[in-house]
Design goal:
By secondary structure, the chain is mainly alpha-helical. The protein has 18 helices and 8 strands. The mean pLDDT is 93. Bound molecules: NADPH dihydro-nicotinamide-adenine-dinucleotide phosphate (NDP). It is found in: Membrane.
C-alpha cells in the first residue's frame, strides 16, 4: 500500500501539535516584548512584566502591517522567481516509494549571491534607509512571516486533496508522508500531509527549506549591524562575532544545498505547518536574536575574549563541517582513495557505516559541533542577560529530539547491525563522556 494510514502520532498527537503551534508563537511574542530597544532584555519574572507582555499580545493588531506583509510576499516571490530562472544543475532526489525520483534545481547559492548583489546595489543607490526599515519593523515582518507560513501550510494541506491518496485505476495519486496520513485535520495540517507538494517543478518543501528563511536571516543580521552603526557610529566587535559566523553558516548551507536532499526533512517529513513555520518564521526571527539584541545593546569585548570566542566558534564549525563532509564523501564514493584510512562495517541492508574518523568518535559528533558553534554566537552577546542564550537551549532540545528520531530510524533500519555499530561507537555526542 503506497499511503498506509498513520498509526503512530508524533509530538503527542493533536494536543501536542496545538501546544507546539501556540507555544512557539508565544515564544516569539515573549522574546520580542521582553527583549527590545524600549524595555531592555530581561527574563520576565515579575507580574508587571508578564502583564505588559499580555497587554502587548492583546494589542497584536498594532503589529499587523499590510506594508510589511506586502514586502514579505514580494521577498518570497522574488526568491521563487530565482528558483526558476537562476542557472544551476538539476539533481534527482532519493527514490520514492512509487519508484519515481523528483528533480531539484541546485541554484540556491547563485540566488543568494544575486540577491546580495541587489542589496549592495540598493545600499549604494538609496543608502541605509531600506535596511533601517527592516530593523525597525522586525516584529511586523515576523508577524507577516507567521501569516504567510500559516496560509502556505493551509494551502498545501488543502492542495493535498486534489487527487486520491489510495490507488485508483487510471488516476494519479498523491504521495503522502508516512506521518501525515492520520485523517485528523489538525494533526495532518501540523505535521504535513503531502510528502512533496509541488506545482509543476516548484517544490514547496525544498524551496522553503533553504531560501526565504535562511537568506532572510542574513538580511536581518545585516540590517541590525547597519542599525547599530547608524545609532552608535560603529559596529561593535560583538556584532561581528555574532553575524560573521552566522552568515558563513548560511552560505555553507547553500554551498552544500544538494545534501539537503538526503535529510529527514526532505526524504521523510511531510510539508505542513511545522516546516512552513520553522523555515519561514522561526529560523530568521529567533536565529537573528543575537544581532537584534546587539543592535540596541552594543557590547564591546576585550581582545582576549573576542579571540577566545572566535577560536571556539571556528573549532566548533570545523567539527560540524569536517564530520558532515567525511560522511557525505564516504556515502558518495566509499572507494575514494582519500578515504581508504577509514574503517567501516557493512550492514545487511547493503549500506556501510563508518566506525573510525569523526564517526568513530561519537555517533552524532556533527550535532555537537553544530551546537557549540551556536553557543559561540550566543557568547558574542556577553553575559548581561540569559535571554540571548535562547538559541543554545532551544537547539539542544532540537538536536536531542532529532538524535532520538534518527536513532529510532537507524535501529529499525539496521536492526542487529546497529547494535554492533553502537558497541563499536558507544558515545553519542562527546567521546568518553556521553
Ligand atoms: P546526520 O547528518 O547525522 O545523518 C544521520 C544519518 O546518517 C543516519 O540516519 C544514517 O542514515 C547515516 N549515518 C549514521 N551514522 C553513520 C555512520 N557511522 N556512517 C555513515 N552513515 C551514517 O543527520 P541530520 O540530517 O539530522 O543533520 C545534518 C546536519 O544538519 C547536522 O550537522 C545537524 O547539526 C544540522 N542541522 C541543523 C539544523 C539547524 O536548525 N541549524 C537543524 C537540523 C540539522 P542512513 O540511513 O543513510 O544510513
Amino acid at each position: 500500500m503506497l499511503n498506509p494510514k498513520t498509526t503512530h502520532r508524533e509530538f503527542f498527537g493533536v494536543p501536542g501539535s496545538l501546544a507546539v503551534m501556540t507555544g512557539t508563537t508565544a515564544v516569539l511574542y515573549v522574546w520580542y516584548f521582553s527583549c527590545n530597544e524600549h524595555n531592555g532584555c530581561q527574563l520576565p519574572m515579575s507580574a508587571s512584566q508578564w502583564s505588559h507582555i499580555l497587554a502587548s499580545a492583546a494589542n497584536y493588531r498594532a503589529y499587523l502591517s499590510l506594508e510589511a506583509l506586502t514586502y514579505y510576499t514580494m521577498w518570497w516571490l522574488w526568491l521563487a522567481l530565482l528558483y526558476f530562472i537562476m542557472p544551476g544543475i538539476t539533481l534527482k532526489g532519493i527514490k520514492l516509494r512509487d519508484g519515481t525520483q523528483l528533480a531539484y534545481p541546485m541554484n540556491g547559492l547563485r540566488s543568494f549571491f544575486f540577491t546580495a548583489a541587489v542589496w549592495a546595489f540598493v545600499y549604494k543607490k538609496i543608502g541605509t534607509a531600506p535596511f533601517l526599515w527592516i530593523a525597525d519593523h522586525y516584529f511586523q515582518l515576523v508577524a507577516s512571516a507567521w501569516i504567510f507560513s500559516t496560509l502556505q501550510a493551509l494551502f498545501v494541506y488543502l492542495y493535498s486533496f486534489r487527487a486520491p491518496s489510495v490507488e485508483t485505476p487510471g488516476k494519479d495519486i498523491v504521495m503522502l508522508a508516512h506521518a501525515g496520513n492520520s485523517g485528523n485535520p489538525i494533526y495532518d495540517f501540523f505535521i504535513g500531509r503531502e510528502l512533496n507538494p509541488r506545482i509543476g517543478s516548484f517544490d514547496f518543501k525544498f524551496f522553503n527549506e533553504l531560501r526565504p528563511g535562511i537568506m532572510g536571516w542574513v538580511l536581518l543580521n545585516t540590517s541590525f549591524a547597519i542599525k547599530q552603526h547608524t545609532v552608535y557610529g560603529s559596529v561593535s566587535n560583538s556584532m561581528w562575532l555574532a553575524i560573521v559566523p552566522q552568515i558563513a553558516y548560511c552560505i555553507d548551507t547553500l554551498v552544500f544545498e544538494d545534501k539537503v536532499l538526503t535529510t529527514m526533512d526532505i526524504t521523510t517529513d511531510g510539508f505542513g505547518w511545522m516546516l512552513s513555520f520553522g523555515d519561514l518564521t522561526w529560523v530568521p526571527s529567533m536565529y537573528s536574536l543575537q544581532a537584534r539584541y546587539l543592535a540596541f545593546h552594543p557590547v564591546h569585548h576585550s581582545t582576549w575574549f573576542t579571540v577566545f570566542v572566535a577560536v571556539f566558534g571556528l573549532a566548533s564549525f570545523l567539527v560540524f563541517r569536517l564530520s558532515n563532509s567525511e560522511k557525505n564523501a564516504f556515502r558518495t564514493n566509499p572507494n575514494d582513495p582519500a578515504l581508504k584510512h577509514l574503517k567501516y562495517i557493512t550492514t545487511e541492508s547493503g549500506s556501510k557505516l563508518l566506525v573510525s574518523g569523526w564517526w568513530g568518535m561519537a555517533r552524532h559528533i556533527n550535532y555537537t559541533g553544530d551546537w557549540m558553534f551556536g553557543l559561540a554566537q550566543c557568547m558574542a552577546t556577553g553575559f548581561d542577560t540569559p535571554m540571548t542564550y535562547f538559541f543554545s537551549a532551544y537547539f539542544l532540545v532540537l538536536l536531542l529530539h532529532r538524535n532520538y528520531r534518527d536513532e529510532c530510524k537507524c535501529r529499525d533500519k539496521y536492526k542487529k547491525d546497529w547494535i554492533r555499530y553502537c558497541e563499536l561507537v558507544p558515545y553519542l555526542f562527546i567521546p568518553f563522556v556521553i
